[in-house]
Amino acid sequence: MAYSILSEAARRAEVYLAGLDERPVAPSAAAVAGLAELDVPLPGESSDPSRTLALLDRVVSQATLATAGPRFFGFVIGGCLPGALAANWLAGAWDQNAGLYASTPGVAHLEIVALDWLVDLFDLPFGTGGAFVTGATVANFTALAAARNGVLARAGWNVEADGLFGAPPITVIAGEEAHPTVLKSLGMLGLGRSRIVRVPVDSQGRMRADALPAMRGPTIVLLQAGNVNTGAFDPFEPIIAAAHEQGAWVHVDGAFGLWAKAAPPLRHLAQGLENADSWATDAHKWLNVPYDSGLAFVRQPDTLRAAMAITAEYLPTATAARNPSDYTPELSRRARGVEVWAALHSLGRAGLAELFERNCRQARRFAEGLRAAGLKVLNEVVLNQVLVSFGDAERTRRVIEAIQRDGTCWCGVTVWQGRTAMRISVSSWATTDADVERSLNAMLRIAAE
Ligand SMILES: Cc1ncc(COP(=O)(O)O)c(C=O)c1O
């Protein structure tokens, strides 16, 4: 039976995931070297797909970084809720092209429901439009395409029809610590990476409201919910009020910080961001759904639609229901809303709040344990990010490499405000308090060597 391979994949996946608790987080050098076994010419003949699966599992599973495991604290990656993974598998079996409501109503409907839930959860204005995209980079790109449309339409210019040649110039204002991918998005939109007006930040990387320049003409202000190093939030209320007074569009990059809205004790950090005009976040980070999954939101859905919709005779785009591809850069794409819906449905408000609060409490525990051992924590731990120095840059890098080699846990290196540090990002549903203690002990043991 052709489909029996699916239970074989599920069995192998279960063994892999159950083993993550004990295996070293980083793949061994031998496992990475073993990938050479894949370097063969394209097979001439067909073979049994279960042999292909077995090869994949034997050679590649061990060459993965255990990001789905409980002690991965690198970047801001998050794990993968088993329920969300299961929904992803089922959606894979459906093989729906999620671009058009008329042809794939089931998944398009799920996305409408999930977007409504998210707008409510994030406290965004009623009627806000949204799009399911690959990640925050593309979510920022998508929302900023709407921003570009919005500010130029107000100046009497149709950017989708006439492009940027001869258009009124757009001023883009961003903090010194805007995420580098936001700059990439601006470059892709023709708004330029180098012509951004940078605003100084404070000791936590927050944009300084008192340093905001005066705004004239079409202007986009980029704010941040969750600095990738410190987890800090820009002061939304004064900046958004000043920007709106001067006719600017405000966009918030909330790749992981937007989720603070979903946990009552964290909500104050994100206070006021709901007054912006557009927002971007990731689901593959803190919502713990499988890669890849990001979300763009725009207060006035018409601007997003104007930037993204297509029309073609052969496409059944005319429908009373929301057509997903009217809001995304892609026409064809996978139904990534399915596992977002499943994660929200199964966790509910209480489960979401518990996940975000627990990870933030665990980040505070890391900071407390590191400080108690005499190490320097560089940031105010307001969310799930901890920056710790082990001394000078060279020593800090050496300790981080030793922690990665040890394999109990995995954290990355960063350079923040001129200081080299280890970045601990607690973003996984799978991380228990015992995992934090075990990781902390390993860090302290290695730092003392
Ligand atoms: C604040 C911020 N913005 C944007 C991004 C880019 O997100 P993605 O890698 O999902 O495209 C990240 C990733 O860490 C981030 O932390």
Largest sheet: 7 strands, mixed
Shape: globular
**Proportion of residues in helical segments:** 25-40%
Radius of gyration, Cα only, in angstroms?
A: 23 Å
Let me know the number of strands: 11
- Please state how the strands of the largest beta sheet are arranged side by side: 1-7-6-5-4-2-3
The secondary-structure element order is HHHHHEHHEHEEHEEEHHEEHEEH
Q: List ligands, each type once.
A: pyridoxal-5'-phosphate
Average the pLDDT over all residues and give the rounded result: 96
**Number of contiguous helices:** 13
**Cα distance, first to last residue?**
56 Å
Low-confidence stretches: none
* Structural class label: alpha/beta
Task: Provide the β-strand percentage band.
Answer: 5-15%
Can you put this structure into words, describing what you see?
By secondary structure, the protein is α/β, with parallel strands linked by helices. The chain is built from 13 helices and 11 strands. Strands 1-7-6-5-4-2-3 form a 7-stranded mixed sheet, with helices on both faces. The chain has a 4-stranded antiparallel sheet with strand order 8-9-11-10. A hairpin with a 7-residue loop joins β8 and β9 (385-389). The longest helix has 36 residues, at 337-372. It is globular. The model has no long low-confidence stretch (mean pLDDT 96). The protein binds pyridoxal-5'-phosphate. Pyridoxal-5'-phosphate binds at residues 75-76, 135-137, 179, 181, 226, 228, 253, 255, 282, 294.
